[in-house]
Design brief:
It is a single chain. By secondary structure, this protein is an alpha/beta fold. The chain has two domains: about 210 residues, Rossmann fold; about 130 residues, 3-Layer(aba) Sandwich (Rossmann fold), CATH 3.40.50.720. Helix content is about 35%, strand content about 20%. It contains 14 helices and 17 strands. Strands 6-5-4-7-8-11-10 form a seven-stranded mixed sheet, sandwiched between helices. Helix 2 crosses helix 3 and helix 5 runs parallel beside helix 6. The longest helix has 27 residues. The mean pLDDT is about 95. The structure holds zinc ion (ZN). Zinc ion binds next to loops.
Length: about 400
């Protein structure tokens, strides 16, 4: 396998084995025909890009996506403040155009539209693009790539701001994508991308590894990538999104001065060994230790006759369950707040998803918190106050195995 950014042969350092598509919940009838795909990660010794060894065709992953972003109030507030911040920083006005790549149902673009700025969304999930268009957010139901960018350029589309959250890690043909960005970016424009930061992986937050995420970016690798298509990363910020994300600012060379943030973070990455395969091999060993520790705990609790339920079934939770081999032998049941998942079976492990009230009815001894990144929020949820009062305990599996309320 060759690097998707620079073409150099990549070195495998971690394998999660055969993994189902962790966002694809199943009906009982779909279980026998469930597909699994290899999930292993490699490192490019030439440009330092961490990436999957094999990918699933994007058509299988994104054409019929069930996630609608506007459902969360917190997310809408985030969209508004981000639009305000970017509009002020780049002095956007009614003549400016914001293009969002992977714009989903248009929540972020709506916030720009409310500021009187011109907008265009691009999202390959046809069902979601349709929802956006119906709401007055012009959205092309396409994958963003160089061919589409050239078509847009021919039609006179040039962006003052290109924005993309959680897309840069998802696109296998990343060089073609980057060339597309260059094609529609105005000479003085900026492209802003937000994505999970590689640092999390090295802190044992391995459950962000799944088929949708082809890349696990360091700033070192990103700088190399954008430089190769003739663009420049001129600023970077770390954000708390998704348990640790990066926001990068890209422009045509010389359009903006390179911020000290870029230099500082690259130095930190070199210090931490992000440019060395041995760092990643060590990470792989640490995750194996984490697995052994959690499995020993669950086995001990089961042998003592304790009941254990899993709290919520996010994509990352399904990665953990499948890779660790946590199935019906360990878990009595699983619950999730999202109605869209209730009554369906979890990918790979085939646990029926129940609503939260199953916890109040059956009072399991332990809740395995799979959305560990918001563990505090879960433990302090008013809905779980009763459970806690009666001695219900919480197991946090990542990045360290911890038990609360013991
Ligand atoms: Zn490379």
């Amino acid at each position: 396998m060759n690097c998707r950014s620079c073409g150099f042969p990549i070195m495998k350092f971690f394998s999660l084995g055969q993994m189902p598509l962790v966002n694809s919940f199943l009906t009982k009838e779909q279980i026998p025909s469930e597909a699994k795909f290899d999930l292993s990660v490699g490192f490019c010794p030439q440009c330092c890009l961490v990436q999957l060894m094999e990918t699933v065709p994007p058509e299988k992953l994104f054409r019929d996506y069930i996630y609608f972003s506007s459902t969360s109030k917190l997310f809408l507030e985030h969209c508004r403040s981000l639009a305000d911040e970017l509009a002020a920083r780049f002095k956007l006005n009614p003549d400016s155009l914001v293009v969002e790549i992977a714009s989903n149902d248009g929540a972020q673009l709506q916030a720009f539209k409310d500021l009187g700025i011109k907008i265009l969304g691009i999202d390959p999930a046809a069902n979601i693009a349709q929802v956006a268009n119906a709401k007055g957010i012009p959205t092309l139901p396409e994958f963003f790539n160089l061919a589409l960018a050239q078509k847009l350029q021919t039609e006179g589309t040039q962006a003052d701001l290109i924005f993309g959250a959680n897309v840069l890690a998802h696109v296998p043909s990343i060089v073609d994508f980057a060339k597309g960005v260059k094609t529609i970016l105005k000479p003085g424009g900026t492209a802003v991308f937000e994505f999970p930061y590689l640092k999390g992986l090295l802190e044992k937050k391995f459950d962000t590894i799944y088929h949708e995420h082809v890349f696990y970016y360091s700033l070192i690798a990103l700088r190399n990538l954008w430089h190769s298509v003739g663009l420049e990363v001129y600023d970077v910020e770390q954000t708390p999104m998704q348990g640790g994300s990066l926001e990068i600012f890209i422009a045509h060379p010389g359009a903006f001065a390179i911020s000290d943030n870029v230099k500082i973070l690259i130095n930190q990455e070199v210090q931490a060994g992000f440019d060395k395969i041995t760092t990643y091999q060590k990470m792989s060993d640490e995750i194996q230790n984490l697995k052994n520790e959690l499995m020993a705990l669950l086995a001990k609790l089961k042998s003592e006759g304790r009941t254990i339920a899993a709290y919520s079934a996010p994509a990352k939770g399904n990665v953990l369950l499948n890779y660790f081999g946590i199935n019906q032998n360990y878990l009595d049941f699983i619950v999730d707040k999202a109605e869209a998942k209730q009554g369906l079976y979890t990918p790979g492990t085939h646990l029926l998803v129940y609503p939260l009230n199953k916890i109040y009815e059956t009072k399991p001894d332990y809740l395995l918190v799979l959305c560990w990144n918001i563990a505090d929020e879960i433990i302090n949820m008013p809905e779980l106050a009763e459970y806690k009062k009666h001695g219900g305990k919480f197991i946090i599996p990542v990045p360290e195995v911890k038990i609360f309320n013991e």
